[in-house]
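User: I've been trying to design a sequence by hand for this structure and keep getting stuck. Would you show me what you'd pick, starting by listing the structure so we're on the same page?

Assistant: Good idea, let's start from the same input. This is the structure you sent:
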């Protein structure tokens, strides 16, 4: 049986945590940062979790994570 292919766009965006949950970066942290408050930028640094409804779909894209 051939190996499964990892979806590379998903691999760049998501990571699986130690407990098996899927982590994602928050939106809005790439450009236009001078217009955002320091408080907002601090909050954007932290990763977020994917909702349980999407978790199964994303894990299918990341077979070896």
């Amino acid at each position: 049986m051939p190996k499964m292919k990892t979806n590379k766009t998903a691999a760049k965006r998501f990571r699986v945590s130690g407990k098996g949950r899927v982590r994602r970066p928050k939106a809005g942290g790439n450009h236009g940062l001078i217009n955002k408050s320091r408080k907002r930028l601090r909050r954007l640094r932290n990763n977020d979790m994917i909702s349980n409804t999407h978790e199964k779909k994303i894990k299918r894209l990341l077979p070896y994570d």
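That's my pick for every position. To get oriented when you compare it with your attempt: The CA atoms of residues 14 and 20 lie 12 Å apart. The helical segments are 8-13, 38-45, 52-61.
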